[in-house]
Amino acid sequence: MTITQPTWVFGYGSLIWKQDFPYRDARPGWITGWARRFWQGSHDHRGVEDDPGRVVTLVAAPGERCHGRAFLVEPEVFEHLDHREKNGYDRIHVEIENESGNLSGVVYRAAENNQAYLGPAPVDEMAAQINRCVGPSGTNRDYVLELARALRSMGYSDDHVFEVESRVLANG
Q1: b/e string for 44-67 if b means 16 or more Cβ within 10 A?
Q2: Pairing state of beta strands 101-110 and 89-98?
Q3: Which residues are part of the catalytic machinery?
Q4: How many CB atoms lie within 10 A of CB 121?
Q5: Can you tell me whether residue 19 is helix, strand or coil?
Q6: Do the beta carbons of residue 142 and residue 149 sit within 8 Å?
Q7: Domains along the chain with CATH numbers
Q8: Block mean pLDDT (10 aa), the chain, length 172
């Protein structure tokens, strides 16, 4: 997907709380029909090849809303974002909703058929994995805690994120 004009990109994971890229505008919002899950492996940021961390991806969830932030970025920013989201993520088109209306944009999603996909696991197993994993971008634990903190600060709730956070804190 070639991008040639300013485009909205929807962040639902670390993009919410770690913007290491320039943007023209940022707005809270959500996408409908998707849920955030800690089912993607991170060999490059929050873990290593032999011990990948767990980061979020999107899974189809009819009727659900996944809350996050939309950023309006220039086309050249996608070179950086594509590198940042390289471990199994692809850009897909989405309609981003917010209190003012809809924005057409893209989101990075790691589908089930990518090489780093870990899939579902019992929450205690995910928490143990998250608590032990560290990668070039820091601890996997910090990723979970920062995501939960950012969602709360925006006034959003996410049962999956908050359950994983609770188990990470209890078992760490």
Answers
A1: bbbbeeeebbbbbbbbeeeeebbb
A2: antiparallel
A3: 85
A4: 14
A5: coil
A6: no
A7: 7-171 (3.10.490.10)
A8: 92 95 96 98 92 97 97 97 92 94 96 95 97 96 98 97 98 80
